[in-house]
Design brief:
Blueprint (H helix, E strand, L loop, with lengths): L6 H4 L3 H22 L4 H22 L11 H21 L7 H28 L5 H26 L8 H8 L5
């Protein structure tokens, strides 16, 4: 039997509504970013949209206490996701950019998306299944997180960008001198 699903069953506050809408936007934008080439103005614009929207989603997640009535693992997940977003953006903003900035950016932004998908899968499953205890919700979140992180680990490794070649000056230093 499929449970009766209503909007009121999914959203319990204004912060929850903003969180749900912005997180859904991030899922769509993140998927487009994953599927499209990683260069150009379009990638940059979608990237900033994802980053700003994730900051709002993580912030509003801190205001939602529907599952336990207090600070819980979902809030910790929002903090971890926030840290991934910051770690993904810092190399882009540094001048000069570090030698491996693309790889750092890729890994941190990718794990941010995996975190988002883990939270989304937990939300969907927990809300569509019959009411559960806190322990059952925690176990469901753990299992779904492990599955999501395993899939994410495989995809992140498969699609990571190639390592950048070291600059000419580093190659010369390794050779022990200047070109002849």
């Amino acid at each position: 039997m499929i449970p009766h699903v209503t909007l009121a069953g999914f959203v319990h506050s204004a912060a929850g509504a903003v969180h749900a809408v912005v997180a859904t936007l991030c899922i769509g934008v993140g998927l487009i970013q994953f599927l499209r080439p990683k260069r150009g103005a379009g990638h940059r614009a979608r990237g900033y949209l994802y980053v700003y929207a994730m900051l709002v989603a993580d912030g509003t997640a801190m205001l939602v206490y529907q599952f336990s009535g207090r600070f819980n693992l979902f809030h910790v997940g929002a903090i971890v996701n926030f840290a991934c977003i910051v770690a993904a953006i810092v190399p882009l903003l540094r001048s000069p950019r570090p030698a491996n900035w693309k790889l750092k950016h890729y890994y941190f932004i990718s794990w941010s998306y995996v975190s988002l998908m883990s939270a989304a899968s937990t939300e969907i499953v927990v809300r569509l299944l019959p009411p559960m205890t806190r322990g059952q919700i925690g176990l469901t979140a753990l299992v779904l997180s492990i599955v999501t992180m395993t899939i994410g680990y495989i995809l992140i490794g498969k699609y990571r960008p190639p390592a950048e070649a070291p600059p000419v000056s580093a190659q010369l230093a390794e050779q022990g001198g200047a070109p002849i």
